């Protein structure tokens, strides 16, 4: 019996040295994320870490936010995102628990009948927990690694989602500024048409056309302001800002690069660095470890072993071993074994599906980036400048009474529309790039320099 008890006690002493990490194992998530992104992950676990995060948040809010700053702010300040980090601490605690043996159990019996007393004492241990300890630790480690990869992948997805929301909000604010300029021009045109009508050099129809254009500009601006508010509030929720965003807090959309990122080998890179793929691989490992435990414990069910002490009346004390063994007569464990096999099959199929989705995501994202970049360049460097030049020439001929108001207002509407479409096209490119970053699972190739605008080209 000593040969059983001594190893048990030794294992308990050794495994008891492993404790719960103060950061819940979050440093592993930080290390994973650092290899894929320049954004820093922080978890507020106590007053000191909360104060440090609050200081970083104030630094970010003290300056205009760009996409990177918005993503960093959301990772720090969004409480729902902070809550997700607790999954790592839970998994790390579960890992520590797998290294613990069950506590010994003391049994005692004291009875007395007709002056004769009977005393029984026993001390037992869970032998199966000792036998399965190495397998349980491997299973706990596999699940811990899976959770770390899942949480890091979710954090990077959250950051990419925040960048897309930022671009939407910044574009909405930029559209409002553009339409405010349009409204000023429309008001000036309507005032001029009214003056010409009063002077007898303009027709009532021309006046109504100018007034209709002015009404169109007001309606478009009203809708744009409504969209701006909705996008700003959506972004504020993502950033965890209870008071919302301050006016002018968002920087304008970045200039378009001269060329889109090189994406030739990005599919292979994505499969290597996407953390959801890593998490799916870890899930396969965990399912395999769990199946191994099920197979081992299916027929071997030594529940308790220990020592017992008996004494009855004045008889001597008896000592001896005690064992409790499950006999597989009613339950042969086939259901548990089948469940383990199906879980392993599920994990393998999920990994295969994740790989297919990753390849599809990266192909679609690469195509979106290439097409949106080409469209945005076309609209900024061709369509919008030409619409502006046509409007300037029509305005010149109109002032010289060589062009009618109809053509002037038509060209004005086309120029107004071209300006809004240029802003939206630039927004679409940057949103597509954020989606590409998410699909690639990390950093992207460095952009080329901003596209050079031709002299005299207007800016959206």
Molecular structure report:
A hairpin with a 5-residue loop joins strand 3 and strand 4. This protein is elongated. 67% of the residues lie in helices and 8% in strands. Helix 9 runs parallel beside helix 13 (405-440). The chain is built from 13 helices and four strands. The model is unreliable at 454-458 (pLDDT under 50). The N and C termini lie far apart (85 Å). The protein has 460 residues and is α+β, with helices and mostly antiparallel strands. It has a four-stranded antiparallel β-sheet with strand order 1-2-3-4. It has a domain at 2-100 and 132-253 and 282-298 and 333-354: Outer membrane efflux proteins (OEP).
Salient structural properties:
single chain; 460 residues; alpha+beta; Outer membrane efflux proteins (OEP); 13 helices; 67% helix; elongated
